[in-house]
User: Which sequence fits this backbone?
């Protein structure tokens, strides 16, 4: 049984009482070009939040991708045991990131700006997962963003001697 909708009071807006219904009504108002009745303040807040969420999602995916690439490269004792799982995770993260970037290519510039910080986060996560000291993982990124997103590339020990500039 669904609880009855509480009436919206003067001090509350539909946004505060029933977010989903607010979304549907806002969509209807936009489609009808009823701009005068839009809850502009909350609409601006939501659009701004959408942008932040997309950025956080890509940050998370790229950090996880880098973490798995680092584990594949440096965690030798696990390499044979979890190689297929690691490669599957790498493929999955790359596909999600590349799909998101096809829809919103302007976010690639954001990832370029964040790349070094995300790589450092991934180093820490890989060190935690592997039990290896942090300094076991190259401090400078093991590859550029474009290389990391290339679905045919996997790191090797030889890459360390010729790691490209990100």
Assistant:
């Amino acid at each position: 049984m669904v609880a009855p909708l509480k009436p919206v009071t003067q001090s509350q807006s539909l946004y505060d009482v029933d977010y989903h219904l607010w979304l549907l009504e806002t969509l209807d108002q936009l489609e009808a070009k009823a701009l005068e009745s839009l809850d502009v303040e909350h609409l601006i807040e939501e659009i701004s939040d959408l942008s932040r969420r997309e950025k956080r999602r890509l940050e998370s995916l790229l950090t996880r991708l880098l973490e798995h690439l680092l584990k594949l490269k440096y965690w030798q004792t696990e390499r044979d045991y979890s190689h297929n799982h690691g490669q599957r995770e790498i493929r999955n993260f790359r596909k999600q990131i590349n799909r998101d970037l096809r829809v919103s290519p302007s976010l690639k510039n954001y990832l370029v700006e964040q790349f070094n910080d995300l790589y450092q986060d991934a180093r820490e996560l890989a060190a935690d997962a592997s039990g290896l000291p942090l300094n076991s993982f190259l401090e400078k990124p093991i590859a550029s963003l474009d290389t990391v997103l290339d679905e045919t590339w996997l790191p090797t020990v030889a890459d360390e001697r010729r790691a490209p500039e990100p």
Remarks:
- Confidence is low (pLDDT under 50) at residues 161-166.
- The CA atoms of residues 73 and 157 lie 6 Å apart.
- Helices lie at 14-17, 19-31, 40-74, 76-103, 107-130, 145-149.
- Residues 37-162 form one domain.
